[in-house]
UniProtKB/TrEMBL annotation:
Protein name: Beta-lactamase domain protein
UniProt keyword annotation of Hydrolase present: yes
Lineage: Bacteria, Candidatus Roizmaniibacteriota
CDD domains from the UniProt entry: metallo-hydrolase-like_MBL-fold
Gene Ontology molecular function: hydrolase activity; metal ion binding
Keyword Zinc appears in the UniProt entry: yes
Keywords tagged on the record: Hydrolase, Metal-binding, Zinc
Record domain Metallo-beta-lactamase: where: 12-188
Domain of life assignment: Bacteria
Record InterPro entries: MBL_Glyoxalase_II, Metallo-B-lactamas, RibonucZ/Hydroxyglut_hydro
C-alpha cells in the first residue's frame, strides 16, 4: 500500500490517499476538490471510498464536489452528524468569509465491510475533540490516522462546547498503548510515531 499526503485548504488539513493497485481510499477529503480530482485522474486511480476522522469542516469540505464526479459515500461517525449539519456556518465563522460549498449527497454512518476487509482497517473510537472522532489503524502497515486527536508534539483542542476532556484523555491513553513503532498520520502537520509521542501524551494527560 502507498500512502500519499496532501495538506489542503486555508487550514492546511491533511488529506490522505491510500493506494492499493489502482484503487484509492481517501481519509479526510479536506478542501480543494479540483486538486483531488485532478490527482485521481493523473494517477489513474479508482476512488472506492472516503472516510472522515471527524466532522470538522476543514477535513470534509471537498466531499460534495468530489461526489459530483464519483458516486462515492463519505463514511462518518453518526455522533458528528451535527457538525455536518452546520458545516457552512462553521466554515464561514473560522475562515472569515463564506466559502462555496457543495452539499454532501451521500453520507454513510456505518463504514462498509469492503473497505474494512480490503484495506485491513481497524476503527478505533477516539472521541474528545469531537464526539464522533475516530482513528483508522492499519496494523499490518503499522500506521494510524488520528485526525485531530493526536499530533506531533500536540493534541487536539478540547475547548469547544461539545468537546469532552475525559473522553480525550481516555483516547490518548488508548493511542499510547499501540506498538511504539506505529507511525502517526494526523489531521495537520507532520507524521510522528507513538514512541516519539509518549512524553507528549503523558504530559498532556497530566495537564488536563
Amino acid at each position: 500500500m502507498t500512502i500519499v499526503k496532501f495538506s489542503l485548504g486555508e487550514l492546511l488539513a491533511n488529506c490522505y490517499f491510500l493506494i492499493e493497485d489502482n484503487e484509492c481510499l481517501i481519509i479526510d477529503p479536506a478542501d480543494e476538490a479540483s486538486f483531488i480530482l485532478e490527482e485521481l485522474q493523473r494517477r489513474r486511480l479508482k476512488l472506492v471510498g472516503m472516510l472522515a476522522t471527524h466532522g470538522h469542516f476543514d477535513h470534509i469540505m471537498a466531499t460534495g464536489e468530489i461526489q459530483l464526479s464519483f458516486n462515492i459515500p463519505l463514511f462518518i461517525n453518526k455522533k458528528d452528524q451535527f457538525l455536518i449539519d452546520r458545516l457552512s456556518e462553521t466554515a464561514e465563522y473560522f475562515l472569515g468569509f463564506k466559502p462555496d460549498i457543495v452539499k454532501q449527497s451521500n453520507l454513510k454512518l456505518e463504514i462498509s465491510n469492503y473497505l474494512i476487509t480490503n484495506y485491513g482497517l481497524q476503527i478505533l473510537e477516539t472521541p474528545g475533540h469531537t464526539p464522533g472522532s475516530r482513528s483508522f489503524y492499519l496494523e499490518k502497515e503499522k500506521v494510524i490516522f488520528t485526525g485531530d486527536t493526536l499530533f506531533k508534539e500536540a493534541i487536539g483542542r478540547y475547548d469547544f462546547s461539545y468537546c469532552n476532556k475525559k473522553d480525550l484523555k481516555n483516547s490518548l491513553i488508548k493511542l499510547g498503548k499501540l506498538p511504539k513503532d506505529t507511525v502517526v498520520y494526523s489531521g495537520h502537520g507532520e507524521e510522528t510515531t507513538i514512541r516519539d509521542e509518549q512524553t507528549n501524551i503523558l504530559h498532556s494527560i497530566n495537564r488536563m
